[in-house]
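Re: [help] complex structure
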Amino acid sequence: MTNDDNSVVQLTAVRKEYSDSVALDGVSLGIAAGEAVAVMGPSGSGKSTLLNLVAGLDRPTSGSIVVNGEDLGDLTEKGLALFRRRRVGMIFQFFNLLDDLSALDNVALAAQLTGTSAAKARTRALELLDELGIAGRRNLHPAQLSGGERQRVAVARALMNRPALLLADEPTGALDSRSGEQVMDLLLDLNQIGQTLLLVTHDERLAKQCATRVIHVVDGRIASTSDLEHTP
Amino acid sequence: MSAVWRVARSAMGRRRVQTAVIALVVAVSTGTSVLALGLLVSASGPFQRAHAEQNGAHLVIAYDTTRVSDEQLAATATRPGVEAAAGPFGEVTLDTARSTAARVGSLTTVGRADPAGPVDRLDLWSGRWAAAPGEIVLNVRQGSDDPVPLGSRIEIPGEPVLTVVGFAYSVSASADAWVTPVQLAALHPTTAQVLYRFTTAGTGAEVDAGRAAVTAGVPAAAVLGEQSYLTVEERFDADIGVYVPFLVPFGFLGLAVAVLIVANVVSGAVVSGVRTIGVLKSLGFTPNQVMAVYLLMVLAPAAVGCVVGTIGGNLVARPVLADAFGVGASGIDAWVDVAALVGLPLVVALAAFVSALRARRLPATAAITAGSGPRSGRAVVIQRRLASARLPRSVSLGLGMPFARPARSMLTLAAIVLGVMTVTLSIGVTLSVNAYNDAVRPVHPDRVEFLGGLRGDLSLPADAPGPHPAPTLTDAGDEAALRSLPGSVHVLASAERTVHLLGSQEKPSVVFSRGDSAALGPGIAEGRQAGPGEAVAPSRFLNRRGLALGDTITLELGGNRTQVTFVGVTLTNNADTIFTGWSTLDVLAPGSRAESYTVQLAPGTTREAFVSAVHARDPGLEALPVRDGTSSQAVVLVGSASLLTLVLALVSALGVFNTVVLHTHERRRDLGMLKAIGMTPRQVTAMMITSVGALGVVGGLLGVPLGYLAHRLVGPAMMRAAQSDVFGFVIDVYHAPTLVLLGLAGIVIAVLGALLPAGRAARLPIAAVLHNE
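Output below.
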């Protein structure tokens, strides 16, 4: 468990209902700064809903969610958008890159939305692509990149605004095993330099390699939590 | 229920917005097409159409019943060449100028039992037919001003009181009013009219031949007068013809916009469903079944929209056509409805078929992955350039969107261009009509007009209070008094007479003036004010008679003759009134007194105080109310222009609406992602509006010059149709600020069309969108 003073994420009695089902039922959870938490569970267990709520993509039916000191329940739609822009970075299973934009422009986009000039945003994007080892592919479009490369571009985009929390939804789910390994290494590296990480995955290997804590969600409830001994 | 129908129905259920958009767009487009076709049909030979509709008379002959027997008149109807005849109907002239109540001038009044009959079937468009003695129906064209309200009473001393119970319209101009035969008999007629239709009456010679045939057995002296439908047609065309060049372009614009929008919406619907086409194919649907699904999906809402649109189009078209042409109030031609009901679904089917055919050829895998690859090369290059532009990123992303779907963007642009062109043309027509109206019917609040006497053949305006003016001073005394009163700046004394124009059968009205003609006379568009022996006239008077400035005419009144030379073209509307100096009247009718005096007041002088002062000097001078400067024709033109512009701009905006709906549908994943990485709802809205706003800017830049050019063609054509000269001040109505504002019309259309779907895009639920994708 985590110490409240040091927590980046704090969920208290969070419940999320859809018209015909309960996706999360009274979930309370804390994530400390620098922690890497993996959420696992069967399909439909509520793990993606949990991620969406923490990312401010959706609102809970009841309960409170505080991320980096901001109570998401207090935020308007615009407030949530600004929160997503500044506090969190998101990595999706299917990358969700804009097909019309080059790798560099996809990464720069996240900063440009905040009003950063195109030149500054591109400089920062190039640095990130360089750090992730794909600077040479910066002018290619998503369709011209491999799955692993696309996900690296997506990771770079997620890191563009230096988020307090990196959220990943099945980040290796659409990748072959080699690309998946590379992304796992990347996430591990990021966590080791202090990036707080919350990832949702079916992949036990990914969870074990990257996470310091694994939470099992079943039927919308936290069924178990296990701390892992992590060996870099 | 077949699998095809089941899938199509479920697809419509899933894409409720798109289905509703198709139905709505097809409904509005069909309505516009009905209106446009109705205008085009009505504008082509409006008189012939109305004449055929009413079984109008080719010839109306008035007989002296003291010189011809009923049997002889009845026999005229059976002469060779007569296809049908109506009458004889008794006819009298009622001079309502003597009425102590409502006055509507001199009325040729006919006794008819009903408005129907084999010839001249009247259009009773308001009130009811005269059913009993004491009731009268006036001949008024629908759309023109009612001369008096229904229920008004005409009380001529010594005659029965007549109450106006209805307004009917005779395209044959067979009478000014109708009463029951019993009522007419009580008015002791000595004239009877017979209305004839001939088997051939296409030319004046044929009408003359028909006349000769019907009057063969009638004493020549018994024929008091006659009226050929060709003469009536000439007058009709001069009045109505002004609408034709104005309405025809709107008709074509309406059709073009309707077809464009439908093609855009339908092809867009199919293209956006290409992925589903791939899925259906992979499930085992044959290419033809897939096409059938898409055709059904589009045609079902289109059919509903088409029916609704046809009904709506009829409802809108009816008052527009009735106002413009005064006929066709019963509705537009049935074939127009049939054409709309068949034509629009055909356009829909064709657009859907062409798009679906392309999708049909796509391999299933390619269809499923359609849209997930990079867009066209040009779109990518433009996006790259825009990414470095010094613009908010939401704006630059929006600017690049049209290039991802160039064909759709071109169709949307075309719709905006036509919309802006319509707005520009319509504003131009409105400005021209107002400029013309202001010039020919100026309103002068600083002028007072006094009636100083009543000419025998001049009736007072209907709303002028009785009794008739009876000045106590002489003509010269009144003029001197008016000039001497404090507050009087200019005075113009006038008299009007019907004068014979020698060398013709024409009897135009001539206004004779003395005093300050330069200040208070009619405005001069060309030439100069008339001096002694000179006259000025409106261009319509000159053009109708083949006259020009410098030409001389001879006027005759009561056996006196004088010549006047035309030296100026007036800015007046009445085609049968000319203006000359008082010296001409001194020759034609020596000793006449002025019937009216126009006084221009000094600033600060109130009308009421001046009228009181005048009455203190001569209580017999009667002040007339300030003239109403509005013209029913101008009101109809401006009203029609506004309505048509509204409809066409709405259709253009619908095209934009559809484009943004499709963009949103196709880019749901991108929108979800953009929102997930922090794009605010306002930025999403800005991006979607920008995506069509750019088209709006281009549409404005193209549409304004096109509308301007259209106005340069339509404006002069309207004036020529009205037999007027083409005045520069009526055509040169666009000024720089107006053009700039009109240029914004494209943006307005684009923003109005995009606002709703852009707002919807901004509210897309991110989690659901990303989950479903």
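Residues 177-192 of chain A form the longest helix (16 residues).
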